[in-house]
Amino acid sequence: MFRKIHFVLVPLIAASLQLQAQAVVPKNKVLYVVDSVPVGTGHDLRRELPYEELKSEAIASVNILKYPETLQHAKYRPYDSVLFIITKAYAARPAELKAIPSTDQLTRKGNIYFYKGKPYSGKVLDYHYDGSIYHEGTLENGKYTGVHLYHDPEGLRRHSYTYDKDGAEHNTGTDTNGNMTSRVVRTDERLLLFELYYPNGQLKHRTKRVKNKEIQTSYYSSGLLSDSLVRHLKTNKTYYDPQRQLLRKLAEQKDYLKLRELFPSDPATYMYISAHKRQDGQFDEALRYMDTCIALEPLEPMYNYERAMLRLRKFAYAADKVTFKWDYELSRYLDKKPELHIPEADKQKIMADLKLFEPMKYTNRDFVKVYRYVAEKF
């Protein structure tokens, strides 16, 4: 359940630190350590929270360990330079709070978390760069226990951990409003049950292990089945729901007339047609079908993200038809900060769709790039 912490410095300070760090390096490998926690390598590192950036005004001090001095420290030997960054919030933090480890300082072995070589018992605290708490909770004998709180921009998440008589971990997640969002049951060796829920309480996805079979079922928020499969773990053979296979086959054959005839109320029907229209450069038609898809399934944030990307792709194609083919990676194109002439009404629609995708941002690395472009240009 640990987050992977990444960060990005403002361009000027990032470039300056990178030049210093690479002044005497043979392999160009740089490690960043922020507030005593290693957070990643590279020069353009992003946290999971795309709005949270480590900017120059938040930094209290920077120290650099360069090659060959890195060879004197076992954990830093793979790196040519190590940048130790202390934020102002960390510098002002009381000693008793600094003594409480971050989850990123724990080492996981199986289902047990270790600190300084021993299963950890006690409190853990993770912070945003502004000093506010991101995550707080307790571990007992190396296992999450009790209630863990996660403070996200979109609200407060709770994960409650309990253990049954056989030692299996039960993890139930709820959102700010107290609605159940997830349920997990696992042992040290394997995942037994994984469930996700829509805001309306409808089951979204279930993965369940029964003896040597893994059964996966997914649903729309209406309760309509969206996918189903059974995987035999010993033979690795997978069996799919015949109706879902037929739907995918018709989409692959581009038999959209038959697809709409057999699956008129299935959001996937219109998602597939939208993708085909996009490939043909018919962006307005593609958007129309995506609108229908979302009307049928208003609680799937990924569809909103796809519609935002589709709308951006429309204007990127209009601006540069030579470079921007239908399969050109949009996030890579937006990284170049192109000037796109997007009407205000479309900008608002893009922002609204990205906002709805916000709770799912951890599942999509490109979201950060897209959001940064939109935040800067809109």
UniProtKB/TrEMBL annotation:
InterPro entries linked: TPR-like_helical_dom_sf (IPR011990)
Signal peptide: 1-23
Key words of the record: Signal
Protein name: Tetratricopeptide repeat protein
Organism per entry: Chitinophaga lutea
